[in-house]
Amino acid sequence: MTRRLLLGYLVVTLVVLLVLEIPLAFFYSQREQERFTAAAERDAVVLASYYEDVLDGGAPIDPTQAERYAARTQSRVVVTDSEGISVLDTDAAVGRNFSTRPEVAQALAGERASGIRQSKTLNTDLLYVAVPVASGGSVHGMLRLTVDAHEVTERIRGFWLSLVAMAAVVLGAVAVIGWAVARSVTRPLRELQASASRFADGDLSVAPVHPDAPAEIAALADTMGVMATRLDGLLSAQRAFVSDASHQLRSPLTALRLRLENLSAELGEGTQGAEVEAAIDETRRLADLVSDLLKLARADQPPPAERTDVAAIAADRIDTWSAVADGVDVTLRLDRPDGALWASAVPGSVEQILDNLLDNALQVSPAGQEVTVTLERAGDRVRLRVADRGLGLNDAQKARALERFWRGAQTTPGTGLGLPIAVGLTEASGGGLSLADRPGGGLLVELWLPCSA
Asked: Where do the Histidine kinase domain residues begin and end (predicted)?
């Protein structure tokens, strides 16, 4: 917006300058030419009066006055008789016929003629003035004065250049002042835009705009502030409810599961015992759901990211999950470079992400297969991949797999919150997570975290 305002200022200024300077330049050019022509005509009339009696009486012409004038003004003086034959020429021999020249013919007809023409021989502009030499109403000849118009042309050109220079200075001054004014005008909008960007990133604190902001922008900022406050309150209430409900439900669910397990031991393996075992399984699933909800609530409000050794954490989680993998006859393999891989991550997030991904991979991997965890550094990122040999997901399923509570099949164990928790923790750390097909079958979960020096 600053550039558009500045461009508007410059366009308006340029139009004003053109409207003012172009007519002024043409007026100055015309006035200088008229003044130069009038001076030449005045000199031509004075010289013509000097030769009036000579041409009338047919006496020999004395070229002294004309030659002095020509030498002083760097001009050419030509005097002809009534037939247009030159009788005096300060620049050539006499006897030439000038009657075919329009200005000569006009002067011999008793009228004055003047103008500027380009001389190809001298490569310059020449001003010519032709006046009749007459007395008693009779034209005895004419006098033509030719003057180099270079001086007046240069004066006009200099005036044009001065106008251009002045316009450039004015435009430069307008650009500087306009930039400052535009920045001042758009400062509240930039502050509001910065607040909106932070708002979109999850920071619901809307900074107050500049005190000099227009009333409309200030009102918009106040409205955004009210909206942010209400939204922050709603989100805080939601997180508090999920966290409190999860905490409050864990103890009753644990007590219920223990009572059901005691009841199952008393009933034995009969029909009623099987029903109690099913109830115990549902209780465990509900407890897992409550635990995942608590993790999800914490993921929505994570602490600041810290420097984390992803390689060391991955090795530790592989060791922890190896016993579970052995129980389902699945091999866990870790491919990693030597040394540490430092990334910026929310404290405890890498452990939770790997636990969720490994849990999902082991649940869907057939016996005798392998789950591979790969770590590598790619530019300014640390990349982590978890690949299994399960049935995989089609495109529609991959699009929904990151949604909360979605499960591939009702028979699939879990709460449907593992991947959403992993996504939330990854994004809170400044990274990203995506799903792809593993070559040869299965699912490939790839995530990246920003490197930390």
From this structure: 244-453
